[in-house]
């Protein structure tokens, strides 16, 4: 990458490393809890249902979910799995992504490359640190057979968890974690990178300098664009759902890997099958990115302002 030479008399933009704050970790967890409890989990359930039942239309998936439990059906898997995942992965993302973005920029990366590096690193950390077993259990809850229809009381959440653990051990609980890691690194690499790119474009259109802050609505617009465009990797999400799903199909590979699962989906449903659920996924990507990038940036600035004012008041 060619070095950027500052213009004569121009002050190069100083890169400052912000200290690691416990408040930022709490903020990341809080933002993710807000995201998943509002629109996040319903969109996740619709997306997962379409990815697992690839013959369903969008309307068909909505009907299937409603029949499963009405409004509560759209929140299946929220407690405890989505809450456990949200309260931990948000903190991991904001902490790791901020650190990685800083170091990338310290080596000369621009905002776009720094955002991609931060998002990818944060996404991988999320997958292996906390998301593997949570996404697996959410998918199991959404896709397991409706034994209640046969007059049998369905097993509880924890009974399902322990049954998988007894039969398959830690590997069973973390089934599909490599697909989760691929999804997360491409998800947040795209979301952060495209959001930063959109911010640069908005600055050019509005005539703002790099040092000038964007307004709240400008940040939301940039994040929405970044989140929506990041749904290009939907095939990885469909593969992840299939690997973690508990549906019975004798044609499925016995030992599922990312590669043979992709071949199975393609042979069963063609290229369209790999993009099932992309519509709710775009909505989910927009909402998650607004919460974690736009609201995350604004909330961090607000916390820093409040803590700065508190320190000044003490002195």
Main attributes of the structure:
73% helix; mainly alpha; single chain; disordered N terminus; 315 residues
Describe this structure in words.
This protein has helices spanning 22-52, 58-69, 78-106, 111-143, 157-173, 177-206, 216-229, 234-244, 258-273, 278-314. With 315 residues, it is an all-alpha fold. 41% of the residues are buried. Residues 1-10 have low confidence and may be disordered.
Termini separation (Å)?
A: 46 Å
- Derived from helix and strand composition plus strand pairing, the structural class reads mainly alpha
Rg, Å, rounded:
21 Å
What percent of residues adopt helix (DSSP H or I)?
A: over 70%
Helix and strand succession?
Answer: HHHHHHHHHH
Note poorly predicted spans.
1-10
Strand content: under 5%
**Whole-number mean pLDDT:** 80
Distinct helical segment count: 10
Give the biggest sheet.
Answer: none
- Care to count the β-strands? 0
The outline comes out as: globular
Short description:
With 315 residues, the protein is an all-alpha fold. The chain is 73% helix and 0% strand.
SSE layout:
Layout: H1 22-52, H2 58-69, H3 78-106, H4 111-143, H5 157-173, H6 177-206, H7 216-229, H8 234-244, H9 258-273, H10 278-314
